[in-house]
User: Fold Dephospho-CoA kinase from Macrococcus lamae.
Amino acid sequence: MKVIGLTGGIASGKSTVSALLKEYGFAVVDADVASRTAVAKGTDGLKEVEKVFGEEAVINGEMNRPYVGQLIFNDIEKREALNRIIHPRVRDIMEYEKQQALKSGRHVIMDIPLLFENHLEYTVDEVWVVYVDEESQLERLMKRNNLSYDAAAARIHSQLSIEEKKKRAHIIIDNSGNLSELEQQVKKVVEQFFERNQKK
Ligand SMILES: CC(C)(COP(=O)(O)OP(=O)(O)OC[C@H]1O[C@@H](n2cnc3c(N)ncnc32)[C@H](O)[C@@H]1O)[C@@H](O)C(=O)NCCC(=O)NCCS
Ligand SMILES: Nc1ncnc2c1ncn2[C@@H]1O[C@H](COP(=O)(O)OP(=O)(O)OP(=O)(O)O)[C@@H](O)[C@H]1O
Assistant:
């Protein structure tokens, strides 16, 4: 069974691609989901967040995501402080989920937005990058998260550029076009993947 790292810039379309890959039978382990579990209600992770970022960082027993987001995407030190709390926990959760998925005999997609930033490319067999041109990325992010131009740009610039991620990919899925173009590309990538892996 293979482990594939799926990455790309913020709002490039990783979740959209993951949903398509599930239909082809891949198991998907999602870092954004794991990062919510890491600071869910009542966890030590959430207590740490409150200790470091103050009581405004928690609302109704849950992490105040808009507040924390606004703090960390504009300040690298705060971002690193949050990463130090959440990332080790995310890694443990994802490792467990990966092992469970492998036991079920399925190829696994590890959907990790910060795969290159956190040097995790060596933990997977191959890396697929969901690419989108920078203009569409900004537009889709502003629309999806209801963000201003500046807030969306800050989120994009908190990551390695999408052009650099594209250069480091084994496989590129270009999501600059419409959804039906994306579906066709994913189909092709999956067919080629199964061809490569049956030959071995
Ligand atoms: C800052 C937080 C509270 C904002 O929450 P929000 O609901 O608005 O966004 P969400 O979690 O859905 O993340 C959306 C995207 O933002 C990007 N992003 C999130 N955190 C980071 C980060 N620390 N550095 C760079 N990009 C990030 C990723 O591309 C992610 O897919 C949240 O993203 C968070 O807890 N981040 C720290 C954990 C993390 O690094 N997650 C990314 C994958 S492990
Ligand atoms: N080809 C497309 N055309 C138009 N909109 C798209 C296309 N692909 C995805 N989108 C939309 O763009 C937004 C970002 O896509 P998606 O949520 O899949 O990205 P993501 O990489 O998982 O984002 P993040 O890592 O930030 O959570 C979503 O609102 C999605 O519906």
